[in-house]
Design a protein that fits this description.
A_deaminase_dom, Adenosine deaminase-like protein, binds N-(3-methylbut-2-en-1-yl)adenosine 5'-(dihydrogen phosphate), 7-stranded parallel sheet, adenosine deaminase activity, 11 helices, single chain, TIM Barrel
Length: 279
């Protein structure tokens, strides 16, 4: 049963700036997807990382592959997107930025759900999965550019994500530069693993408008002073994501944050942000 504190955290107006669509599928939606595709023999344990469980990076990205098998048609994508938006809204999120990697056959479907009426301000970032290489990256940028022009402000940026141990950012630079030049904001996952200093230097020169994770930017964990300097001098915000969405996750994570950070500072930030977005 919800405690008074649970209720408080749920009702608190929130902004969500780093949600991957297929990393935000709830237990209930996953159940529906699994039932729809019994032939895949997928069990719940293969689609989520439960609290307290430890998995390697590789194992985490295997989970996304399983989820992608379950969400592979226009109908699935729409169902998942609607559910995710509704669940964020029910969790008190007033401004939501979702990001997702277009898949070949169903790319347009990703955007249809943006028209559905659910009371939350929605913005969308088209994601490039680094695993797919420079050609697909460029095609994705072109798609994002089309949507930037035609989505009436809903599509706002490009996300670079995917397994950080695969490929090299230098091969994606021209796609990222093109994206920046056409006015898309850049949200780049970088320094998610310790061995990517050169790549992070290159990506920070673009520069990105937001950094995803940036866990290993600091020299103490394998990054460098130069990387930290670039981030600080250019004032680039760093966003963390919680890639898997257990029931009530927003509430649990908020409690975690508030336990460790100053609650009043966060409430103030949220209110200021909401005022600037909604006014
Ligand atoms: C594994 C882990 C702890 C990750 C957190 N950090 C992440 N780093 C890079 N890419 C990510 C991360 N979390 C999700 N993604 C991307 O989001 C995708 C799932 O959402 P979608 O299919 O784009 O809708 C994944 O396939 C992956 O490309």
């Amino acid at each position: 049963m919800d405690t008074e504190a649970d209720l408080f955290y749920r009702q608190l107006p929130k902004v969500e700036l780093h949600a991957h669509l297929n990393g935000s599928v709830s237990f209930e939606t996953m159940e529906t997807l699994i039932k729809r595709k019994p032939h895949l023999n997928i069990e719940h344990s293969m689609t989520a990382i439960r609290r307290g469980q430890r998995r390697s990076l590789d194992e985490c990205f295997q989970v996304f592959k399983v989820i992608h098998q379950l969400v592979d048609s226009e109908e699935d994508i729409l169902m998942v997107a609607k559910a995710v938006i509704q669940e964020f809204a029910a969790d008190g999120v007033k401004y939501l930025e979702l990001r997702s990697t277009p898949r070949e056959v169903t790319e347009t479907a990703h955007f249809c759900f943006l028209l559905t009426f659910i009371f939350v301000t929605k913005r969308f970032l088209v994601a490039v999965d680094r695993r797919h290489g420079p050609v697909v990256a460029m095609e994705t940028v072109k798609l994002a550019e089309d949507f930037l022009l035609s989505s009436d402000g809903v599509v706002v940026g490009l996300d670079l994500s995917g397994d950080p141990t695969v490929g090299h950012g230098k091969d994606l630079l021209s796609a990222l530069e093109k994206s920046k030049n056409c006015g898309l904001k850049l949200a780049l996952h970088l320094s998610e693993v310790p061995s990517r200093r050169d790549e992070s230097e290159l990506l920070l020169n673009l520069p990105p408008d937001r950094i995803g994770h940036g866990t290993f930017l600091h020299p103490e964990v394998g990054g460098s002073d130069s990387l930290v300097d670039k981030v600080c001098k250019q004032n680039i915000p760093i966003g963390k994501s919680f890639p898997f969405h257990p029931p009530n996750s927003k509430i649990t994570y908020l409690k975690y944050f508030f336990k460790h950070l100053n609650i009043f500072f966060y409430i103030l930030l949220t209110i200021l942000f909401l005022i600037s977005v909604l006014s």
